[in-house]
Design a protein that fits this description.
Radius of gyration: 20 Å
Structural class: alpha+beta
CATH class: Alpha Beta
Length: 319
């Protein structure tokens, strides 16, 4: 069993989320899911070839090294080149072959560095797997969720059988945006980093204002995958799925993808605005970060404050 530890640089992130849960503060978080593509087939094939000896090593290395390499991407961000350095992600939990992370957002422009870091970590780790001649590859999904309306932060009590009395209650997340994120993971492949629509909205708007050319590559990677059913999400209506192409620019696959209509940021922002206007707030809204320093993504939707007060009152009187 891999022990989940909170990196010392991620303590601020966890503290913000814990306070948001305690006080029902407005809080926006970005979430990341990464797992091994074709893991079941790989386990079966490797067991047959190596008599059930070493198939697990690939996964143990993945559980240990991917989070380390992901966090290293953040330590490399130069404070002097950005005024919106993102908070470090926290390792949320392991679910089978999947590793999940979260990080609070205090500025919508932080989404650019978050996506760059996640994109680069997956690329680097897949290069490592290829050099080791290991067949499977990583695939990733990223999304956002706002709290405490539509989604809730939950503190899971310590296990009654735990012998470590110092453990804090673990953090979990529930809600429609969380469900949407998990539904989107089925579209991810080693060549497709899936992005939720509301996260893409923040990314596209931020790219329109971005001066750092190192982050501009993101726009050229955005691809539209059409409308798909996400089973219970979006009131049963088809959901527009987007991803970032993970193909190397020089590959023939990327050239083929580039023949498709480009997803430019201006069109994406306009598209997201249109979707928000014709969709129920319980299904999709323009995301917001309270008191952020930009002129956008800061307006709290009508009736949300009233709903938050109801939640506060309920939590206060809960037995």
């Amino acid at each position: 069993m891999v022990k989940i530890k909170t990196n010392k640089y991620a303590k601020e992130s966890e503290a913000i989320v814990r306070k948001a849960e305690k006080d029902n503060n407005w809080c926006m978080c970005i979430f990341f899911s990464v797992d091994i593509e074709g893991s079941t087939a790989y386990k079966s094939e490797t067991r047959k070839k190596h008599n059930d000896i070493d198939w697990c090593d690939t996964f143990k290395t993945f559980y240990k090294n991917f989070p380390i390499q992901f966090l290293q991407q953040y330590s490399a961000i130069d404070d002097s080149t950005t005024i919106y350095k993102p908070l470090y992600p926290v390792l949320w939990k392991y679910v089978g072959d999947e590793i999940l992370f979260y990080a609070p957002l205090t500025d919508p422009r932080q989404t650019l560095e978050h996506i760059r870091a996640f994109y680069q970590t997956i690329t680097n780790y897949n290069d490592f797997l290829e050099k080791q001649k290991i067949k499977p590859r990583c695939k990733g999904t990223a999304w956002i969720a706002g709290f405490p309306v539509n989604n809730r932060i939950v503190l899971m009590p310590k296990s009654a059988t735990s012998t470590n009395q110092k453990n804090n209650d673990s953090i979990d997340f529930v809600g429609i945006s969380i469900d949407c994120g998990f539904r989107l993971t089925k579209f991810a492949t080693s060549h497709k980093l899936v992005i939720s629509l509301d996260l893409l909205w923040m990314i596209a708007d931020s790219l329109l204002k971005e001066q750092n050319t190192l982050l501009k590559f993101i726009e050229s990677k955005i691809k539209f995958a059409g409308y798909h059913d996400l089973k219970g999400v979006f009131s049963g209506k088809p959901y527009p799925v987007f991803w970032l192409s993970m193909f190397n620019d020089k590959t023939i696959e990327n050239q083929w993808e580039n023949n498709a209509a480009p997803c430019d940021c201006k069109s994406i922002v306009k598209f997201c605005n249109t979707i928000a206007k014709r969709t129920k707030p319980s299904d999709f809204i323009k995301p917001f970060i309270e008191n952020n320093k930009t002129n956008n993504f800061k307006s709290i939707p009508k009736n949300f404050e009233q709903q938050r007060n109801i939640i506060k009152s309920y939590d206060k009187n809960e037995i």
